[in-house]
């Protein structure tokens, strides 16, 4: 049985923005969400878990669910990372979560109000920047950072975001745009112009575990792209997480991951 240390929870594909880099917001059938207690119990059962990354869509569309999850795992040593577009990351929310073992990542691909409308598909610039500056004033550097997506369309803008973050003493990470991962309208950069990738192999094998909105469990979100690995390891609420990780199928999937060379190895979650 492998013991994952990095957990990823895709809360929903539902989103409150219309970003041109991403296609998640175009999905209209969001189905049922797994009971939250099943997610909380699974995290408690994974003794070596170190980090839980909550992603979307936009997780804060389900703000109460995020809060209940943070409260449900507060008795563990698991550090939660929340990736948000900032629209619903209000001062009230920041005040509620500032004392949790939580790191918030604001997704900012530009700080140009005009280009923002192309990036986000909405006129949310003032709201998001107001929320971000409040977070900067209330949270320590280790509690708040920024991530940008680098594509042909955003090179100069990502550089400007980096300079902006340095002025505020906030860490800035850069994710290369990958069509297979984002499925949006942007254009991948050639490798010579892309942000450096730490290694040429996928680091998710034996480390990552991903939970889908309906409770389906995968090693990584791209697991179904591997030959013979199209089925989830199981589903929370129907089987225990330990039984899933102990199965022969799980071992076979893990072996496939060790030699996987799909382009998604360049995604931050797989580095």
From TrEMBL:
Entry keywords, A to Z: Iron, Iron-sulfur, Metal-binding, S-adenosyl-L-methionine
Enumerate the GO terms in the molecular function aspect: catalytic activity; iron-sulfur cluster binding; metal ion binding
Pfam families found in the cross-reference section:
Radical_SAM (PF04055)
Radical SAM core domain: residues covered: 1-214
Q: Which cofactor does it need?
A: [4Fe-4S] cluster
UniProt keyword annotation of Metal-binding present: yes
PANTHER family given in the database record: PQQA PEPTIDE CYCLASE, RADICAL SAM DOMAIN PROTEIN
Identify this protein by name: Radical SAM domain protein
Q: Which InterPro entries match?
A: Aldolase_TIM, Radical_SAM_PqqE_MftC-like, rSAM, rSAM_sf
Lineage, top-rank taxon, reads Bacteria
**Does the entry feature the keyword Nucleus, yes or no?**
no
């Amino acid at each position: 049985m492998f013991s994952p240390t990095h957990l990823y929870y895709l809360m929903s594909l539902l989103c409150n923005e219309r970003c041109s880099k991403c296609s998640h917001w175009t999905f209209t059938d969001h189905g049922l969400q797994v009971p939250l207690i099943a997610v909380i119990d699974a995290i408690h059962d994974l003794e070596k878990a170190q980090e839980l990354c909550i992603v979307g869509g936009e997780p804060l569309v389900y703000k109460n669910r995020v809060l209940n999850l943070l409260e449900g795992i507060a008795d563990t040593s698991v550090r939660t990372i929340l990736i948000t577009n900032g629209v619903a990351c209000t001062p009230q929310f920041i005040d509620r979560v500032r004392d949790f073992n939580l790191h918030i990542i604001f997704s900012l691909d530009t700080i140009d109000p005009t280009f923002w409308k192309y990036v986000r598909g909405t006129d949310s610039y003032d709201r998001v920047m107001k929320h971000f500056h409040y977070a900067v004033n209330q949270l320590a550097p280790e509690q708040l950072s920024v991530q940008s997506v680098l594509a042909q369309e955003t090179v100069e803008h990502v550089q400007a975001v980096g300079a902006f973050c340095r002025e505020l003493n906030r860490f800035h990470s850069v994710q290369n745009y990958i069509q297979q991962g984002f499925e949006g309208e942007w254009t991948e950069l050639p490798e010579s112009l892309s942000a450096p990738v730490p290694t040429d192999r996928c680091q998710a094998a034996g480390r990552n575990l991903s939970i889908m909105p309906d409770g389906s469990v995968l090693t990584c979100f791209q697991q179904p792209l591997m030959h013979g690995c199209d089925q989830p390891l199981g589903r929370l609420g129907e089987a225990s997480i330990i039984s899933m990780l102990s199965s022969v199928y799980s071992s076979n999937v893990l072996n496939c991951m060790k030699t996987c060379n799909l382009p998604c190895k360049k995604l931050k979650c797989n580095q």
